[in-house]
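TICKET #2291
ISSUE: user wants both folds in one file
ATTACHMENT 1:
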Amino acid sequence: MTRAGQTSPKALRGTAALLLLLTCADALHHGISAPLVAAAFAAVIAVGERVRVTLPGDREQAPIGTAVALAYALLGPLHGLPTTHGVSQVVAVAGIGTLAGLAPLRSRRRHRRCRPEPGRVDGAVRRLLTVGFAALLFQPLYNSGALDQLPLAGPAYGVFLTGVAALAALCDATLAAVQRRARNGLRFAAALEDELRSLLGIGSAIVATGMLISLLAGEVGLWALPLFCAPLLLAQAAFRRAAAVRATTGQTIETLARATEVAGYTPPGHARRVADTACALGRELGLGSRDLALLEYAALMHDIGQLSLVEPVPDGATALLPQPEQQRIARLGSEVISRTGVPGQVAGQVARLADPCHGPDGCADRTLPLAARIIRVANAFDDLSAAARRRGLTEQAGRQEVFELLRAERGRLYDPGVLDALARSATVVVRPD
């Protein structure tokens, strides 16, 4: 991870903290506009922070808190009367509500207060900066009367709010990509693609709810908060249930992957080491979180076909077998995986992981999945490293020998791009069984 990647989260936290301090001071200096309304929005934001949901890819989301904070940033008239709160009060209210939701809870077991996890803090920082950005786009235009001079009556006003909300969503996706790049080592383009894709899910529900609350508050006042937060709470419960299903799938795959170790077909920890190496290579090659999850599943289960063998492969090292035997084991494993309910792409990746990189005509096989090429290199790396350790070679000597053996088959058995990624990756080391 680069130094810039390490400092980005700290810079964002510092910016958010400074922004919150300045806006709170400004709001106190000029007085709180409609304090009861501000308190109501802050209270719902705090509740929303308490009922966060973790989405695939370890994304922390606070749908209710984010939607309500966005609604406050885009709030124009309230119950038919114009509001006068500005950017500073929006950021202050959102920040105070977020801090109240992040306030550490007392541990039941140890009877002490627990600090919020870094991921929760980063999510709160991102949401605060996004709300501040949305308020900066809307509040000055509304409070100055500039919107009254524009033809924004009726549907046009809704279109304007949609544009502001869309820009705020893009801001949130960009900040989330910066944070994920620093935390997980993903390339920024891949992280941004993942975040933009997530907008089609719960992100669109958050933006739509925030807009509806701000629009309907002009007619029904604060009743818009419970009226539109309830459906979002139900949607959040559905997303949480889906996340639980994915977690169960992951646990099932982990258990199946250990079957070859328990049966004595592969060395202890082999599947996990191959999966870790494959994911490191996938990140180096720019895969997004969804592709990385499928890659991890396939890497964990890449040796499941060995269970159909009468005699175990010596030391479980399939990389040392003849090519046809490797392909046969891969096909057998794919058939087993296809009957487990695992996503179909995983079975397809395992089926092709022993295929050569070039077709019979000598041209690169473009139908060979990148995941299959990655797993083949990761598996060979672990098998050859284990063989080097059994011969008593030091880590440095073993690593050098492994890379020489892999480069000898560069372009024929092993993809050149994946080998280059292996050489660049600092997270791949020769580890003991």
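ATTACHMENT 2:
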Amino acid sequence: MTFLPSETEALPLYLVEAEGLEALLQDKPEAAAWASAMGFTGALGQALVVPGEGGAPALALAGYGDGAARLRGRFWLAAAAAQLPAGAYRLHSDLSHEQLEVEALGWLLGSYTFDRYRTQPARGARLVAPEGIDAARVEAIAAGEALTRDLINIPAEDMGPADLEAAARKLAESHGASIEVTGSEALLEQNFPLIHTVGRAAAPDRAPRLIDIRWGDDGPALTLVGKGVCFDTGGLNLKPGASMGLMKKDMGGAANVLGLASIIMARGLPIRLRVLIPAVENAVAGPAFRPGDILTARNGLTVEINNTDAEGRLVLADALAYGAEEEPDLMISFATLTGAARVAVGPDLSPFFTDDINVAHGLEAAAGVVADPVWRLPFHEPYETMIEPGIADLDNAPKGGFAGAITAALFLRRFAGQGTRYTHFDIYGWVPSPLPGRPKGGAGMGIRALHAALPGLLSL
């Protein structure tokens, strides 16, 4: 997922809007005739190679449609690139700098393949690094997204807590970051009771652990917390089979924060980065925690368990409380947390919660620029009573089914610390059907918007 060097011999590729096709081909009568004969209109996703003398390719066209049509998706150059034959291409367009970077990134993202278990055909159309973009930055973003996709796509048999730890170690070592892992009984000794409780029923080789990565010595402190539930059976509140089929992606929050960390470290951003990942498997066995149990979290709050399938917020609670102890300048959690968030906004939007209007505006503005759509949901104060069961401080699964994403976010906020600037992403982490630049499977969500917003959020 890299660009070809700028000196590469490449076929000219013209990105053309439907209404600009005639003007583009005005001085290219042979190309105009070929485009007409082949039915090329400049519609979104169309691609055409135009032959020259002797039949050798002379140039290529990629349809860019019109503004109204483009609003219905993103990465439209990637859609056209998927139709092009193998070869090197050099893009010619009138795109703005921001649009050019988005489309160039989409091309790289569209070339992703997951081939760990079966050889997959690689897309042969390669793009020369377009002039005017920071190619290294775009490649770093693409690499971070590829890491996130890979981690989510690997099935739970090969991506348990130990495997997630190994992936985190590999990333840390490649960037000179430090990593500490608190595992098994040490979780109890060092006061991570909820992480231990959720993961204690798993097999010994899939024991729970807390992964802690640190990188950078100067600048503002950013702490990323990612839900690392490597497989979720639902525990004793067992999920039906249909709901369990995609639970390999329940560590999508961890995959996303590792992908974002990869981008931050590769780019050398001037921050002090910390990544916390509670890695567990929510299994069914004799030691499994039970409905009705009351657990005490790291920060002393008690939690009544009304559903063992609401385990993600439990492991995040200990990790957030731990992260808050250092009072970072900004703390952000990512989790595949609630079905309610999917019902609210579907699989394409990344819903987030924050009390900080500057964070909200920064994320929303950045999301529009980098084509990584987000949507703000509220920490609605009147719903606080819904997570207070009376018998304990908190309820991990309020009855009634209303506002599930909001009550989960309110639950997490109780552990983020009073003075902490805290934002929570409740993501899906999965593309259910292939889209331009986004094959079916694991997906980064919100991390590109956050990466773009970080300079403003942390005053870098």
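RESOLUTION: both attachments delivered.
EXTRA DETAIL ON ATTACHMENT 2: The first strand starts at residue 11 and ends at 16.
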